[in-house]
Sequence to fold (864 residues):
Amino acid sequence: MAANNHEILRIENISKSFPGVQALQNVNFCLKKGEIHALVGENGAGKSTLIKVMTGVEKPDQGRMLYDGVEMKIKSPQHANNIGISTVYQEVNLCTNLSVAENILLGREPRQFGGKINWKAMNTRAKEIMLGLDVDIDVKAPLATFSTAIQQITAIARALEISSTKVLILDEPTSSLDVRESDLIFQCMRKLRETGVGIIFITHFINQIYEVSDRITVLRNGKLVGTYDTENLPTISLIQKMIGRSLAEYEDMEKAKQDPDKQQVLIETNNLGRSGTVQPTDLTLKTGEVVGMAGLLGSGRTGVAKLIFGVEEPDTGDIRVDNQPVDKHSPHESLLRGIALCPEDRKESGILGDLTIRENIILAMQARMGWFKYLNKKQQYEIAQKYIDMLNISTPSSDQLVKNLSGGNQQKVILARWLATHPKLLILDEPTRGIDVGTKAEIQKLVISLANEGMSCMFISSELEEVMRTSNRIVVMRDQEKVTELPGDTTEHNIMQAIAGAD
Amino acid sequence: MDTNSENKTSFFHRFRKSRLFWPLVALALILIFDAIYAPGFFKIGILDGHLYGNLIDVFNNGAPLILVAIGMTMVIATGGVDLSVGAVIAISAAMGAVLINPAFGNELISNEILTQNVSKTPLPLIVLANLGAGTACGLWNGFLVSRAKIQPMVATLILMVAGRGLAQLITNGQIMTIYYTPYFFFGNGFILGIPVAMYIVAAVLLLAWFLVRKTSIGLFVESVGINDKSTYYSGISEKNVKLLAYTFCGFCAAVAGLILSSYVHSADANNIGSNYELDAILSVVIGGTLMAGGRFSLLASVIGAVVIRTFTITMYTIGVPANALLAAKAVLVLLVILLYSEQSRRLINSLFEGKKERRDA
Ligand SMILES: Nc1ncnc2c1ncn2[C@@H]1O[C@H](COP(=O)(O)OP(=O)(O)OP(=O)(O)O)[C@@H](O)[C@H]1O
Ligand SMILES: [Mg+2]
Fold:
């Protein structure tokens, strides 16, 4: 028991500022051996920055760090690795065209005599590591062929393999996973906890915090709010501490009002499909309604979104928008027709990191206006500021580069980009991924109020609760096929059953 | 007094952060070198009512390179590269020479007719053919890159190799000398004592500046260079943006071809505009635009081109033989890469910051 209370990592009085932002201010933090420690707070609270300071990515302006009781200056992520601090950062950087084994052991490949890579030993070793985490897959296959969960676990496996890990840091590892897959990660974490590894776990899912963590540290606006034992901190006070107010105002959220007399059919798909991603699907979307899309990852929800938005061309079937058949499929055409898509992978197909927030927000709007009608700077600043305020994007100015924003705030910028086009149909693919509880509720509220003004919305989310809360109708997909449509007031049980395929 | 010095610091600070800072530093270094080792370099005189001297030469002679660098900036900003600009210069020049030449149409003619100061085609039409041919080449490159999805380096390599052959076909394998004096205006003429080429550069730069800053094209070009997938998802037709960039680059190379052939009074398909692709790329790099694409500055590239021209002329002035010039250029490239590397920037920045702190203390 005494050994269990041993502190492995202690942070004292750490401050860190970026131009215009005090990201961390006199923060104290301590991690024990064999505990899972949740680090929580709003978007931009400083969680990732604290991690980066601990792992030598960023240098703190002041403060000190004790590792295993000894004062230590971490010089670089490499250095952190060598002494046993392994990290999976928020933006995972793996090579999806390499095999799982290569990804895990990249840079540490077992060598034969003469320096040639011993592929057999490498694959065996990778297989062992993955089996140790209870994942049985073909480690020779390219990473791209696996689900996001497996990719995430690969990243963890890589972190674990780096050294005899004493501290494992996971920055939002479950943000893009569904329930089943998150459970996989939790299994891993519990297993590691038993071996005495101290784990820092960042998440915006309140239920997950209670599911796995032993202690919770809350940050707000770069300051420490406090560290608590999970069992002694009820959800309500946790949320209170995170966002500085209670969420009660959102509890009585009402769905968009449906008035069949006024609503028209906006989108109609007929047998719409594309081999390999979506089986032929019939779908109707009316003005002023929110249609939820439920299903597991890979069930074809994103595929449907891409077909409707024109990112990919369908092989079969057709789409009608406002009763007009669509013959040209491209995001540009869709934009002109008033369709918008917030894609799920913000880093790959969402943000433009080296452009400013302002430029990112006006981009789609400008794309609709064309090459020669250019919004002048004043208009650009006005529009950007409007959405920065509306979505609570935390930044010193709209001239900040988007890559300098926290993950959740980047997500908001993409949402802003599409809201600014005033779409008729807004397709949201996992819009609240990596977004904090307060803002999540605000986004849901926003969607409903836009629907009340006549906008149609397709809401794709792996969080059933959120789908149920917002949707007037829920489409369930399984194995790239639409299996059923349920009314918005259905039970979680019904949806789960439809997803799982039990009749 | 206090606020005054603060203002000065912040101006200097802003200038140091601006994209023009490093190219100007590079230029200043070369000029300082000249001031010490080749004081004659700075002499500007007036001859026949025209300005002349090395500094004027940098611009007059350097006009084609500046033009190509402007076009190349757009292409590199989209994350591509255009290796064919030298060949496009040759094609444009050949087009002009052939249309001027009375031998056009395979008549049997004597040397006497060939060397006459006449043209079979009206001058505006010649210019149009020059520019049209080059622009078409750019369109072709853009098509290969944006529609056929061929990697820019490979796509433009095709024209880099085939282009000079094409130019030879146009000129029938001959080095064509031009005797039609009105054509010399572009490369040798003066208006108000200033070379015509400089006016042309100014006009093209103004056009480019307009496209880039007064329309959304500049934003789209940067956006494509940063992440073309995100750009596509944002509803921008990223293909057309690339097409436009390559076409514009072809146009710039064509104008360069016009000036260059006019300046040297001939079109030599094999040699005219040779190595321009490398000099242009280097100009853009000196201008601080990343080869990976993204943020760019036209003016910085122009200064980059001026740096290269100044360097070349300096080398000639201090008597470096032409065949050693390439080696000298290699040294310049090395210096630039070192100067621009992350490490040395951090070092220099910390020097500045350190100084400021000491003053604050
Ligand atoms: N390189 C940087 N330059 C400027 N500001 C930065 C930089 N990195 C982070 N910031 C700012 O520091 C603050 C804290 O960011 P951080 O990424 O730590 O937030 P977070 O708690 O991880 O949020 P999220 O839940 O959205 O991931 C934010 O306001 C962010 O904009
Ligand atoms: Mg973060």
